[in-house]
Structures are given as structure tokens and as C-alpha cells.
3-phenylpropionate/trans-cinnamate dioxygenase ferredoxin subunit
Amino acid sequence: MAKWVRVASVEELKEQNPLLVVLDNEDVALYRVKDQYFATDDLCSHAEASLAEGDLKGYLIHCPRHGGQFDVRTGEAKHFPAYAPIRTYPVKVEGHDIFIDTERD
């Protein structure tokens, strides 16, 4: 069963500008692309750098440390040196509020 937690407002999350939020003591990166919303673990699976500090180009977040890339829709590693996927979270928007499902699979 889903457990939705409000993490930000739509106004806080600008297009192509990732936002770091803390969810149950874990860092999560939020993304907005073409008025779609996505969330992933914040740490790069390769270098443990903050993805919220990286560059978002389209649906690809670029790790600020070594340039690894991940698809924010799926968490799939798309460019070396990143090779392991990152966790994604279900996201929904109600009114002006952004929610993340915190239930673990």
C-alpha cells in the first residue's frame, strides 16, 4: 500500500533544476522535465556524489563528480563510469504539492 509524503511544492522545483529533499533520513533528488516530475536516490551509484548538484539535460541527470549519467524516469545508468542503476520513487502532484511514495518494494 502506498505511503505518500509531501516533499515540496511545484513552485520550489524549477524546470531542469534538481532539488534535494530529505525523505525518512535519506537524500532524494527531485526533477521536473516538461512539467513531469521524477524522484531518485540522490547519490550517484558510482562516486556517491549528490545528483541534485548535477546538470539535468532532458531526462538525463549528469553526476557532477565524473559525468556519469542516469535516466531520471527509470534510474538506469546511461553513461560510463556509472554502471549500476539508482532507485526511483513514484511521484504524484496534487494541486501545488509534490508527493513521493515511501513504501519499499
